[in-house]
Amino acid sequence: MKYLAEMTFPEVQEASKTAVALLPAAAIEAHGPHLPLLTDVIIARGMATAGAQAIETRGLASLAVVAPPLQFTPAGYAASFPGTLSLSPETARVVGREAIAALAHAGFERVVIANAHLDPAHIGALHEAAQDSRAAGIRVTFPDITRKPWALRLSDEFRSGACHAGQFETSIVMAERPDLVREAIRVGLAPNPVSLSEAIRAGRKTFEEAGGPEAYFGAPREASVEEGRQTLATLAGILADAVAADREAGA
User: Fold this and answer.
1) CA 150 and chain centroid, separation
2) How many domains in the chain?
3) What is the CATH number of the domain that holds 229?
4) Disulfide-capable partner of 197 in 123, 161, 182, 230 (CB 3.0 to 4.6 Å)?
5) What are phi and psi of 81, to 5 degrees?
6) Strand, helix or coil at 74?
7) Please, what sign has the CA dihedral across residues 143, 146, 148, 151?
8) Separation in Å, CA 96 to CA 2, 139, 210
9) In angstroms, rounded to a whole number, what is the distance separating the alpha carbons of residues 122 and 102?
């Protein structure tokens, strides 16, 4: 496993002939008072890194390379919170499509999207970018963890929809970047069991309208490093299984 941005161009030229690229997809947005704006990027990069290792271990590629993350995207639900950076869905679709095309142009035989940002506009833009890319002849694997069968592998909190900066996401950040968790704040946060996904389906447009005035949903106080590591292993398995399924299907 290698990180693309740490490689030289001759190394990429040689390695990409039989390698796949993993593209983390995330956002810079509010994640409660206890997690950094970088949370989704941390999760997506951790997912991609673990997924790259799983892909190599299972012999699905001779080398898996983790690309720099996409981190400017629609984040409208958090737009009122300072620091959130949000793009239009149309722009995100173009950026995603061109990032995939750039990786294909570099010689990678497949691009695997590791997404950690669950805003519907963002996910829609990723699906459209993947479809555009497939239409151009690029092999793209995108296991959408908000959909079956992948979502069924994740935690009860994740499936409940009350999982923005809650136990699920906080656990991963604790495992990957504990230095960025405001621990004194985290342990004092009361659970917020409101389902963000249900609120979105009901037409709510912001975290505040959805019942998350502090930009978190779920139970961050219940998070743990152990759960974070287990979740990353599960996410890695999802990426590897998705690649295997696409290969078998000739996609």
Assistant:
1) 13
2) 1
3) 3.40.50.10310
4) 161
5) -90, 130
6) coil
7) positive
8) 21, 14, 28
9) 20
**Beta pairing, strands 19-25 & 63-66:** parallel
**63-66 sheet: strands from edge to edge:** 2-3, 63-66, 19-25, 110-115, 140-141
Q: Residue 80 is encoded by which pair of tokens? A: 């009122």
* Residue 16: predicted pLDDT: 83
CA 65 to CA 111: how far, in whole Å? 10
pLDDT in tens, 94-141: 999 999 999 999 999 999 999 999 999 999 999 999 999 999 999 999
The larger pLDDT score, comparing residue 208 to residue 15, is at: 208
Q: Quote the CA–CA distance of 4 and 245 in Å, as a whole number.
A: 25
Parallel, antiparallel or unpaired: strands 140-141 and 110-115: parallel
Residue 149: cis peptide before it, omega within 30 degrees of 0: yes
CA atoms of 4 and 12, how far apart (whole Å): 8
Give the pLDDT of residue 7: 97
The proportion of the chain whose per-residue pLDDT surpasses 70, expressed as a percent, equals: 100
- What is the model's pTM? 0.97
Does residue 158 contact residue 148 with C-beta atoms inside 8 Å? no
Tokens coding 65: 């390379």
Query: Per residue in 182-197, pLDDT tens?
Result: 999 999 999 999 999 9
Q: Which domain holds residue 239?
A: 2-249
Side chain identity at residue 62, one-letter code? S
Q: Which two tokens stand for residue 192?
A: 């917020």
Distances (CA, A) of 64 to 81, 122, 247, 251: 36, 25, 15, 18
What are the pLDDT digits (tens) for 18-47?
A: 899 999 999 999 999 999 999 999 999 999
